[in-house]
Design goal:
This is 2,4-dienoyl-CoA reductase. By secondary structure, this protein is an alpha/beta fold. It is built from eleven helices and twelve strands. The strands form three sheets. It has an eight-stranded parallel beta barrel, surrounded by five helices. A two-stranded antiparallel ribbon has the order 1-2. Strands 6-7 form a two-stranded parallel sheet. The two termini are 26 Å apart.
């Protein structure tokens, strides 16, 4: 394995300074009964900060909208109790020398009625279409769209007020924002439907509202993906030119950093170039980019056989990752499952203690680690 000094260079952009290039990837754990972060959640994030992570991006946190939640015990990002819980998380991470951003989230058509908060509220989606395997939901009106945009802005403002260092908007993986991007779920005939530029309008309104809520100096991260929960071969953009046309308006609207979700960081995004999705995002927009996807493990994230719970894996070389980072293909590296198995993954890698890294097993995601 590489000695990895490059991974531990400080990162500095106009709005964000980090002690190294290691980011904790957001991973849903459903460990917040009543949708309130508790002592276990505080300790979970504190351990990763103590373990050397430069920037923690939290698990997805639901915005203040009755249809935002799709899973039980997911933490909310609204309400006095939940925000007080997150304030404790922020303080613990800062005391351990780390920085942290919440990922703010609306699941859209993924939702099934009966999940709290929200109760019998159906899933909201661009066209009322069901995501494959889900029940048919509610087609969003203009009022609904305006309410959700406002909910994202409110969550971002609250994040800044309680001391978070940045905010990430979840626009990936077939959830609500991505459902507007994807023509398979967005068949609207108004200004939010049509070609990809029109289907991006909802996301652009959210980004602009978030930017207005947090001001010019607070970092806004945007997570996007080509693949969807329902279709791992899906592509929003088939060419670099199309990707540039998609990402540039988001950057102009206020995105500071693109978090480019892939299943395997080493795979080239387009023929004729070795650049991965983060590499292309950085090249096309000039914005810093976070790469992610099976970092540090020998088993792919979400394999073709549909194995659940973030497929298990053994520690694997990061030499290829380091080589790409050294040539500035991307700026930051998000680590997921390896950080579940090793809260001190960053410190162990920095110290060359590769033999001390534990394998990841599926059950670890639900353990009190």
């Amino acid at each position: 394995m590489s000695h990895a000094e490059t991974l531990f260079r400080p990162f500095s952009s106009e709005k964000l300074q980090l002690k190294n290039r290691v980011v904790m990837a957001p991973m849903t754990r459903t460990y917040s009964p009543g949708n309130v972060p508790n002592d276990l959640v505080v300790d979970y994030y504190r351990r990763r900060a103590e373990g050397g992570v430069g920037l923690i991006i939290t698990e997805g946190t639901i915005v203040d909208h009755p249809a935002a939640s799709g899973y039980p015990n997911v933490p909310a990002f609204f309400g006095e109790d939940a925000l007080a819980g997150w304030k404790r998380v922020v303080d613990a991470v800062h005391a351990a020398g780390g920085k942290i951003a919440p990922q703010i989230w609306h699941v859209g058509a993924i939702r099934r009625p009966g999940i709290d908060p929200g109760g019998d509220t159906p899933g909201y989606s661009p066209s009322g279409m069901a995501v494959p395997g889900k029940v048919v939901g509610h087609a969003m009106t203009q009022e609904d769209i305006d309410d959700v945009v406002a909910a994202f802005a409110k969550a971002a403002k609250d994040a800044k007020e309680i001391g978070f260092d940045a905010v990430e908007i979840h626009g990936a993986h077939g959830y609500l924002i991505d459902q507007f991007f994807w023509d398979g779920t967005n068949q609207r005939d108004d200004g939010y439907g049509g070609d990809l530029a029109a289907r991006s309008r909802f996301a652009l309104e959210i980004v602009r509202a978030v930017r207005a809520a947090v001001g010019d100096d607070f970092p806004v991260i945007f997570r996007f993906s080509q693949w969807k929960q329902q279709d791992y071969s899906a592509r929003l953009c088939e060419t670099p030119e199309a990707l540039g046309a998609f990402l540039t308006p988001l950057a102009e609207a206020g995105v500071d950093i693109f978090h480019c979700s892939t299943r395997r960081f080493w795979e080239p995004e387009f023929e004729g170039s070795d650049l991965n999705l983060a590499g292309w995002a950085r090249k096309l927009t000039g914005k810093p980019a976070i790469t992610v996807g099976s970092v540090g493990l020998n088993a792919d994230f979400l394999p073709e056989d549909g194995t659940a719970n973030f497929n298990a894996g053994e520690p694997a070389s990061i030499d290829n990752l380091i080589e790409r980072l050294e040539r500035d293909e991307f700026d930051l590296v998000a680590v997921g499952r390896a950080l579940i198995a090793n809260p001190d993954w960053a410190n162990k890698v920095a110290n060359g203690e590769f033999d001390a890294l534990a394998a990841y097993e599926r059950d670890m995601l639900r353990e009190l680690r």
